[in-house]
## 1
Amino acid sequence: MPVPLRQDPGMEPFESRLLREIERRSEDLVRLTQDLVRIPTTNPPGNLYRRICEFLERRLAAAGFECRLIRAVGSPGDSETYPRWNILARRDGTSPGECVHFSSHTDVVEAGHGWTVDPFGGEVRDGRVYGRGACDMKGGLATSIIAAETFVSVCPEFSGSIEISGTADEETGGFGGVAFLAERGLFHPDRVQHVIIPEPLNKDRICLGHRGVWWAEIETKGRIAHGSMPFLGDSAIRHMGAVLEEMERYLYPLLAGRSTAMPVVPEGARQSTLNINSIHGGEAEPDAVHTGFPAACVADRCRIVIDRRFLIEEDIASVKSEVADMLERIRAKRPGFEYEIRDLWEITPVMTERDAPVVRSVASSIRRVMSRRPAYVISPGTYDQKHIDRIGRLSNCIAYGPGILDVAHQADEWVGIQDMVDSAKVMALTLSELLPRTGRAR
Ligand SMILES: [Zn+2]
C-alpha cells in the first residue's frame, strides 16, 4: 500500500498550486466549451456522436488517457445513419487504487426558437459561454476534463485511476449511453468506485439523486355510434372524464399532502406529483392536409398517459395500486365503465447517503474553494444516475457541475465562466483527496 507523501515543509501547499494552475487554464476551459458547443449533437435524432467522440479522443489521448469508442449497437435509435457512439477514457496512476469517474452526456436537445445568438456558435459574452448544451452539459464535460488534465499534470504520480466518459442519448433516456455501458459492466463497483456526473446543478450544490418515475397508459372503453344518437353508444371520453374527476377529487390532494425527507429542488417538487402527459379520445386528429369536418361519432376509446413522480418513502407497488384501486372504485359505481392500464416504464428513486465518500470529498472541496457550505439537493427528474445505480449497482454517485439548471433546454442557454472555473477547482481538489499522491508533485 503506497503511503502518500507529506507536504514538503518549505514548499507551497500542493492544493494551492493545483488551484492556481486551474485558474491559469481558464481560457483553455472556455475554448474547450466553445469547441464542444460547435458540434451540434442534437438528440433526437442523435447527430454527430462519432465526431464529438473523436474530438474528445484526440484531446484526452494527448493528456495520456487510453480511449475506447463504443457504439451502442442495437440500442433504441441506433442506426447506420445515427449510430450511438460513446467514449470511455481512462488514465491509470502509478500504482493501483480507486477509480474516480466523470460521466457526461454529449447530446443536447434541439435549439428551438427565440435565440438572440447562434445556438451552435459558442459565443462568449459578459463572462458567459452561450449555446445549446453550454449549460446542459458541455460546460460540465469541459470542466471535468480541465480538472483531470490539471491534476495529472501537477501530480503525475498518484494511486488509482481517472475515467472520463462522453455518452449518448441522456436526453432520450440514456439507453444508448450510460445504460449500455453499465450493462457491459463498465460501472461495476469492482472497476469504478466514485462517480461524478457534471450535470448543471450549481457549483455549490451536490445532487444526491432523484425521485422515482412511473409512466403508464390508461385507456377507457366505449362503443361507437352515430353522434346524433349518443344514447345508442357509450362514450369512452365521458368515462375518462370520470377518471379525471376522481383524480382531482381524490388523487391530487392525496399526493400533495405527502412530504419527504428528500431535499428536492425546486421546492414545489418536494412531494409526490402526477402529470397527465397526453389525452387522446375518439377520432384520430386529422392530418394537416385534411380540410373537411370531422364525422359524427361517439368515442369508443380514450387514452391518457400519466407521469407519476414518487418519493423515497413510497414504494412502486403502492404507487401503482392507489391508481388501480381508484379505477376499481369508479368501475364499482359507474355503469359500463371498462378500462385497461398498461405500464410504460418505471425508475426507482435514488438518494446517495450524505456520508458516502464521494459526497464527503466534494463537500469539503466546495468548502475550501468557495468558503461556503454545500447545499444537498435532489433532482425532480431523473438523469443517468438511475442506470449507474440500478444496472451498475454503484451507489457512491452524485451529480455535481457548473451551470444553472433553470437555463437548461431554454433559448439563449449559457454557462458562467467563473462557475466553470470554480467547479473545476472543486473537481481537481476532489481528485487529489480521493487519489493519494505517491510521489513528489511537479
Ligand atoms: Zn443533462
## 2
Amino acid sequence: MSAHSPRPWRDIARELAREPDRSKRRNLMRELSDSFDPRSATCAICNRPCDLTTCKSDEHGHPVHEHCYTTSLKNAARDGDC
Ligand SMILES: [Zn+2]
C-alpha cells in the first residue's frame, strides 16, 4: 500500500523552481503549503528555509532565523528612535 505520503518540503521547492508551467506551479505551491517538513520551515522574514532546530520564533510564533529576528528588532528600534 502506498499511502499518499507528503514529499519533503525541499523536493517540492526544487521542483517548483524548475517548473515553467503556471498551473502546475500552482499545484506545487499548494502541495508545498500542505506538506511540511518538520525539520525545516520558512523564515518569516527572509523567506528562506530555516532549520527548526536552530531557528527562533518571533512574537507571532512564526519561524525565523535568529539573525533575521535580531536584525528586524534592531531595525524596528531604529525606526522608533527618531
Ligand atoms: Zn531569515
